[in-house]
Design a protein that fits this description.
With 148 residues, the chain is α/β, with parallel strands linked by helices. Helix 1 links the parallel strand 1 and strand 2. Helices cover 34% and strands 16% of the residues. Its cofactor is [4Fe-4S] cluster.
Length: 148
C-alpha cells in the first residue's frame, strides 16, 4: 500500500443503500463511531453526492434503483471513487439471480474497491476508504500533469 501524500483536503463520502438488510449500513456507522473514529482521518459522511469524493454503495441493487444509482454517480465531481460494501453489492449475495436485481454494482457503475463480507468489519471499510483515497491521489496527480 502506498503512502498518503497529496490529497489536499478531507475525504468526503456519500452513502447509497440500494436494498440492503442494513447490516452493512450499521458497520459503516460503526466505522464512524468513537471506537474506529474515521473522522479523525478526515473521512466524513456528507448528505449530497455533489460534495462527495467517494461513493459507498451497499445492498443488492433492484432494477428500479439502478438508474438512480447512475444519477448519483454522475452528480459526483471528478476525481471520484466507488466502494462496494458487502457481498450483496459485490455479487448479489443471497439475491443472486433474483428477478428484480439489476446485477452486481459493477454492471451499473464503475467500482474501484470491493469490501467482501456479510457484513464486513469496520476495519475493512476503513481500509477500503484508504485504498480509494490512494486512487484519488493518483487521479489528482494525473489531472495536474504530475503522473507517477
Amino acid at each position: 500500500m502506498g503512502k498518503l501524500t497529496s490529497f489536499k483536503r478531507s475525504l468526503w463520502v456519500f452513502h447509497a443503500s440500494g436494498g440492503s438488510c442494513n447490516a452493512c449500513d450499521i458497520e459503516i456507522i460503526a466505522a464512524l463511531t468513537p471506537r474506529y473514529d474515521a473522522e479523525r482521518f478526515g473521512i466524513k459522511l456528507v448528505g449530497s453526492p455533489r460534495h462527495a469524493d467517494v461513493l459507498l454503495v451497499t445492498g443488492a441493487i433492484p432494477k428500479d434503483f439502478a438508474d438512480k444509482l447512475r444519477r448519483i454517480y454522475e452528480q459526483m465531481p471528478d476525481p471520484k471513487a466507488v466502494i462496494v460494501i458487502g457481498n450483496c453489492g459485490t455479487s448479489g449475495g443471497v439475491f443472486y439471480d433474483s428477478y428484480n436485481i439489476a446485477g452486481p454494482i459493477d454492471e451499473i457503475i464503475p467500482v474501484d474497491v470491493y469490501v467482501p463480507g456479510c457484513p464486513p468489519r469496520p476495519e475493512a471499510i476503513v481500509d477500503a476508504v484508504v485504498k480509494a483515497w490512494l486512487k484519488l491521489e493518483k487521479l489528482e496527480k494525473q489531472l495536474e500533469g504530475k503522473e507517477e
